[in-house]
Amino acid sequence: MDTETDKPKRRKRERRTSPSRVTMAEVAREAGVSAQTVSRAINYPEQVGEAVRTQVQEAIRRLNYVPNFAASQMATNRSGIIAVILPSISASIFADTVQGLSTTLLPAGYQILLGHTFYDPEQEEALVRSFLGRGPEGMVVMGTTHTAAADALLKQAGLPIVETWEWTEEPIDLLVGYSNEDAAIEMVEHLFAKGYRRLVFSGVVESGDARAKARLRGFRIAAQRLGLDADRVLLLHGRNVSMKVGAASIAEIRTRFPDADAVFYSSDVFAAGAVQECLRSGIRVPEDIAIAGFGGFEIAEILIPSLTTIVVPSVRIGQQAADLLLAKLKKQPIGEPRVNVGYKLVCGQST
Fold first, then answer.
1. Mean pLDDT, the chain, integer
2. CA 114/CA 118 separation, integer angstroms
3. pTM for this model (two decimals)
4. Which keywords belong to this entry (predicted)?
5. In this predicted model, what pLDDT tens digit does every residue of 127-151 receive, in sequence order?
6. Would you give the DSSP letter of residue 19?
7. CB–CB of 138/104 below 8 Å?
8. Which range (64-73, 264-273, 321-330) has the least confidence?
9. What domains, with CATH codes, occur in the chain?
10. In what helix (H) or strand (E) does residue 316 lie, and over which residues does it extend?
11. N or C: which end of the chain has fewer CB within 10 A?
């Protein structure tokens, strides 16, 4: 029979302990202020003087303090989160709008929760539902066209909603945008004034991209007004917004519309690819064919020849949207809930 001494001794497990989390009280002692002041400096920085705010921020850095925002949200009923829904994270113009939002919201103590829809209305609806469940204090949506369910969710959310990048007479709440249709009309009128008569519109016009639809609608309206053929359209269904697609479209356009003297693309990305393909193929721009785009991408300026385009103030859209959100969150009066930022037609060498 085994005795106690015969049994192998079991090694006692040592429990791993992690360093204790720095508390707000410790930050307060380090900064020489009260815990309430630390809380205000984190959650309501605008309510704390600059000198005290700097003291608290330096103490937070020295101690590597990480605020427990989940606990703070339960205590204050504030998440400090602004949800932002955009069509694509790869388009620089939408990234510029997020930059405009960030530069205004971050100093005011708000963080951005970002989601993208891939131009899919159902995905937008899913994001709206998911984000609202996370308790944001406001939401920015790029677009004014939503599914019926998403529209209802946004209207009953009970928080500031800013729609952007489009124009409507009946926004859900706040609006910062411009008319894509009017901008397209102006571009067609510009091309007509330059002497072009055999215009073609080309671009991706998917079901969830109301902006591209509005640009196509503007093209057709202007063409009809000017007595031009409004059906000279090459839609790039199911293709990505890329320079490669724009380059390939030139051959299709010259096959379907061999007499085309100008092409208006729904995006500068397509237009830039088309210009490059023309140069590669020995097609002179604008002598053989003029090319115009939309968006005011940086590449429009550095192309040779430079691109005629519609410039949209994408950073300003973000800044104005953030200003409206902050005003409403602070319960400040809002003079104009709809802000039309406009656009600018820039005539480059390509037309």
1. 91
2. 13
3. 0.81
4. DNA-binding, Transcription, Transcription regulation
5. 999 999 999 999 999 999 999 999 9
6. P
7. no
8. 64-73
9. 24-75 (1.10.260.40), 81-178+315-342 (3.40.50.2300), 180-311 (3.40.50.2300)
10. helix 314-329
11. N
